[in-house]
Specification:
mainly beta; NE0471 N-terminal domain-like; 4-stranded antiparallel sheet; 3-stranded antiparallel sheet; 2 helices
């Protein structure tokens, strides 16, 4: 059994993501702990962070930063 996949998302001004999964759940994922690490540093720029897009059941940014869809589901908080 696989975890649900992302079908839509909304970036928030506090560096969290509001994620809509294909099981109809809405969850929030905090990106702040990653903003000082490697490729994720670019996301400190809110214009870059806000340009996140859903991609193949997960998410990605134009600089190549992404997260595993399972991690997004398991480490997010249900609303």
């Amino acid at each position: 059994m696989t975890n649900p996949r992302i079908i839509a998302l909304q970036p928030q001004e506090d560096y969290t993501l509001l994620l809509h999964f294909d099981n109809e759940e809405w969850r929030t994922f905090d990106v702040k702990p990653f903003l000082s690490k490697g490729i994720f540093r670019a996301l400190q720029d809110m214009s870059v962070f806000s340009a996140v897009e859903p991609f193949l059941g997960s998410i990605r940014w134009s600089n190549g930063a992404d997260f595993c869809p399972d991690m997004l589901y398991l480490d997010s908080k249900i609303l």
